[in-house]
Amino acid sequence: LRSPDGTTTVYFNDVVRTRGLWVVVLVFALAIVAVGLTRGILALVGLALTVLLLFGFIIPSILAGKDAVLVTVASSILILAVNMHLTHGWKRQTLAAFASTVAGVLLAWLFGGWFVHLAALSGLTSEEGSLLYIEHLRATVNTSGILLAGIILGATGALDDIAVAQSE
Predict the structure, then answer these.
(1) I need a surface site. Which of 15, 94, 109, 117 has the fewest CB within 10 A?
(2) pTM of the entire structure?
């Protein structure tokens, strides 16, 4: 819509999905508790702490200009320390799984960083993304660092599952 003063106003119309998403979350949580009982409840507490750390620390730190990779590696290790011991207890097997998972996260950082550099991955997947990056973010965010941070965060979850399964 173009107003008389020459400015353009754009409206987006979409479906509100909040109720449906809350239903999915509730069914997911009930299934976790039904299958895992106490461990399931503790896993949900760990998930909630992870989400709080993600939205309360990781994302704000990256937006504030801190190194996305360092923030993610440190946060991943904290997430692993809390979640692994919370859901599996303070046992020798959990400590071994934690130590091996931290080693795996560090290796994911090393090899992921090497591959992102070798393949010259920018983290931008389209011309539109590049245009938005250049025009609106003023190139202050390291998108290849955010890509590597995402790789490390994804590897953290996979390594957690594998290490705990192997240690038990």
Answers:
(1) 15
(2) 0.76
